[in-house]
Amino acid sequence: LYKTELETLREQLRDKEKDANNLISNEHLEELHNAHNLKIAELERIIGDKMMQEKLLADANDQQDAKIAEQEKELEELRNLSKQLTELNNSLQDSLMRHS
What we know:
Elements: H1 2-99
Coiled coil: 3-98
Protein name: 15468_t:CDS:1
Keywords: Coiled coil
């Protein structure tokens, strides 16, 4: 009788130990899961920051390209004006030469 009770108590003790080990394992897994989620959140934040930086750089590049295009247009207009002035100057010189 004592032997079977002793065996029963030992089995109950083993079951309790297993439960305790499972509980520790579950707590450990939960801690790992939480740490993993924090890492994911941090990586998502970093990725978001990088995407925002890329967008800001792309916007700045677009603005710079627009300024360059505007300056090239102005330069072309100045070249045309310079050409017109040169033609006008040559025409005036021709007129002066004819009248003198």
